[in-house]
Amino acid sequence: MTAITNVRVFDGTGLTHPRTVFVDGGRVSGEATGGPVLDGTGQVLLPGLIDAHVHLHGRENLEQFARYGVTTALDMATTSAALLAGLRDQPGLPDIRSAGVPAIGPGGMHARMPGMPADAVVTDPAQAAGFVAARTAAGSDYLKIVLEAPGSGGPELPAARALTEAAHAAGLLVVAHAASTGAYTMALDAGVDVVTHAPLGPPIADGDLARAKVVVPTLTMMKGIATATGRPQLYAGAATSVTRLHRAGVAVLAGTDANAAPGVPFSVAHGASLHDELELLVAAGLSTVEALRAATVLPAKHFGLTDRGEIRPGLRADLVLLDGDPIADIRATRAISRVWCAGVEY
What is this structure's pTM? Predict the structure, then answer.
């Protein structure tokens, strides 16, 4: 049992008055039973941060996440089942979920990535049920479909729709990569649950604003690509899409596309980048409270992680203790004093 006393807690809507939070056996407890006491006077306690779009390469990524207060990472494509198995359930390190092998088309950047298995390519709707069954057998937590604009090398709409239907029948959430406006429209036509990325260039179509439900814009990645390709002006469209989606009531989740893979257009640092993402979300029009929700309450809700995202008795003791007030200034999320992953201090 650990007691954190006199600490203000982010409760999803703001900061509470100073109170005591008890941690017992990896969970937040409602009562004290004795043990170490940590004085949190002048500090703020956040639920552990959730990065809703990452790519995992090794244990070092978990260390990087923990160092920056990310206690849950949602992997959006790792082709090695052995790697994923070795990263799951590591005491004192972040919890992960993964799509495993994504469904891709025969063309586009993802088809050229080293290590992408041939059976990732899905072009025929008749392949969908078998592909989803294989992902389920491999332990994937949700399905990832990599969509391109129609005719640009990704799965076309009939295959995307069949994959979505098969995944839903198997009880899996469906996440679609859509880095262009055409791919965005296809993702929504296919009925996916979550769309990731905010397209560079023109903002997404007006008609798609009303149809989107949950988006992970990965503004850090999009800004990085725009800058790396010498076209920084393209980022304005991505930011505008987020502003408009947010105003339309779409759930915006914080995700970074953190990766260190060869052949990607921009490498995003694991852990540190989530704090960049929160700042970019605020710049795009989210309040600081909404940005914090985008990295705590909302990804937990929309990915079915019912045991985290908040600080209340019975939930996982994924906690981040700050030396600043992130509601007054979102940059204060970087002022990390301590991190706990399921009650174990990193």
Answer: 0.97
